[in-house]
Every structure is written in C-alpha cells, then in structure tokens.
Amino acid sequence: MQYNNRLWVVEDLVGQIVGWVSFQSFYGRPAYDATVEIGIYLNPEQRGKGLGKVILQYCIENATKFNIKTLLGFIFAHNEPQPKPFQALWF
C-alpha cells in the first residue's frame, strides 16, 4: 500500500486551527510502505506550551492504526524550536 500525504489540522480547545501534522511517504518502494516522514507545524504563539510534545506522542501511539511502523523526523539546525518535541526521543 502506498501512502500519500496525510494532513491533519490541530485545533485548540475553542476550535481554532493552531497548526498541522502530516505523514508523508518516505520512499516509493514497497519495502518502505510502513515508513513515513512526520511533519509538525504550530503557529508561533502556540510554541513553547508543550503542544508539540503532545502531538508527537499522539502520532507515535496511533501510527499503527495507519499501518505505520516507522516515523522519521528530519530536524534542521536553523529551526531552533523544532527539536524540542523530539528531544525526549533522543538517546
């Protein structure tokens, strides 16, 4: 099964969109069907509140519902806020 982009919006408690999450196919070969790249974006005013960590944890816990076994995240050095939700996963 080939995965296309999967995009979800993130809403706050009053229903306003504050960001998005995506699962995107990592590679076009069948051996990588269960591997996706995760992308998380939050509006700047929502950053630093722990929401990224909650979103990432939710994605990890629910990935198998989409037949996903491996999540990849590419973190670029120039995007300082980006690594924070992922730091708990580093070893």
Task: Please characterize this protein's 3D structure.
The protein is built from one helix and four strands. The protein has 91 residues and is α+β, with helices and mostly antiparallel strands. A four-stranded mixed β-sheet has the order 1-2-3-4, with helices on one face. The chain starts with 5 loop residues before the first strand and ends in a 19-residue tail after the last strand. The relative contact order is 0.20.
Mean pLDDT: 80
Percent of residues in helices: 10-25%
Computed Rg: 14 Å
Unreliable sequence segments = none
> Roughly how many Å apart are the termini?
32 Å
Protein structure class: alpha+beta
Largest sheet: 4 strands, mixed
Task: Please work out how many helical segments DSSP would assign.
Answer: 1
Looking across the biggest beta sheet, what order are the strands in? 1-2-3-4
Sequence of secondary-structure elements? EEEHE
User: Tally of extended strands?
Assistant: 4
